[in-house]
Design goal:
By secondary structure, this protein is α/β, with parallel strands linked by helices. The protein folds into two domains: about 120 residues, Aldehyde Oxidoreductase, domain 3, CATH 3.90.1170; about 150 residues, Aldolase class I (TIM Barrel, Alpha-Beta Barrel), CATH 3.20.20.70. It contains ten helices and 13 strands.
């Protein structure tokens, strides 16, 4: 495999570089391909193609092509991530030594299926909300499978969503769990101090009731993350905040899916926070290898 650490094409719009891709290959081929290396394939060459099995929102195809290149083959993405593709569409083609194609085949296929599954599910939520006439962003949480943050975040973007937060170093989000570990007298003064200490950041507070929401808003919360609120409860809270003169943004979280996203948007949500795309079925990609 090449040992250069070159970023994949900018059309992927991701921080997915050769360090990550080589790690994926090393996980699957840590000490060579025992089967391929034991067969009379060293002097053989072939062609590889990827086709969509079913309509999908494509993601990860540039990374898949780069994976094959890292294995010693030539490959190019025919379609661009972030676009909808039809059943049967040609996504990628490549050629090269048989061992190189076989080394990268399954990792590349799985990567595209995994990322396109997330992108397709994200796009379905975004499409439902936009189709109903609402513009609130669809934001995915950091509840992706550990170790897949860069891949999952890119898939969300390819689906038309945004990331809620990429990690604990990025944003201020106070959970009830934080408050549970504070001294009893530290709330809500600590929220005021948090805002003063990090003035360039919005203070987001997760709440589980209307009472907690109003208390946090009065203490200076700028965004309320509403854990398991129904759309009806969100609408009632929006009215209560309006009456109290508290211009706080509302972000329902926990249980937001394609089935209820429009209801939350209609109830007055400013942002939809969801983890559901990470648990969607992977897309299906057909890979064909033929002797060259």
């Amino acid at each position: 495999m090449p040992d250069t650490l070159t970023a994949i094409p900018t059309s992927s719009r991701a921080c997915i570089n050769d360090v990550l891709l080589l790690a994926l290959l090393h996980e699957d081929v840590p000490h060579g391909d025992l089967t391929t290396d034991s067969l009379p394939l060293l002097q053989r060459a072939g062609d590889i193609t990827f086709h969509a099995r079913g309509a999908l929102r494509l993601s990860g195809i540039e990374a898949a092509a780069r994976l094959l290149v890292l294995c010693g083959a030539s490959a190019e993405a025919v379609c661009v991530s972030g676009n909808d593709v039809a059943d049967g569409a040609l996504l990628l083609r490549g050629h090269g030594p048989a061992p190189a194609l076989l080394r990268g085949w399954k990792v590349a296929q799985t990567l595209v299926e995994f990322m396109s599954g997330i992108a397709t599910a994200t796009a379905a939520i975004v499409s439902a909300v936009r189709g109903a006439g609402f513009g609130c962003p669809v934001a995915c949480t950091r509840k992706n499978a550990p170790g897949t943050r860069a891949l999952s975040a890119q898939a969300v973007r390819d689906g038309g969503g945004v990331m809620h937060r990429l990690g604990l170093s990025e944003t201020l989000l106070v959970f009830p769990e934080h408050r549970a570990l504070m001294a009893s007298g530290d709330w809500p003064a600590s929220l005021v101090a948090l805002q003063a200490g990090q003035p360039e950041k919005r203070v987001v507070v997760e709440v589980g009731s209307a009472e907690a929401a109003l208390e946090a808003a009065r203490a200076g919360a700028e965004v309320l993350q509403l854990e398991r609120f129904t759309p009806e409860a969100l609408a009632a809270l929006r009215q209560a905040l309006r009456v109290a003169g508290l211009p706080v943004r509302l972000a329902p979280a926990g249980g937001v899916t394609k089935a209820n996203a429009v209801a939350y948007a209609a109830a007055g949500a400013d942002l939809l926070v969801t983890s559901s795309p990470y648990f969607a079925p992977p897309a299906e990609v057909k890979v064909t290898l033929v002797s060259h």
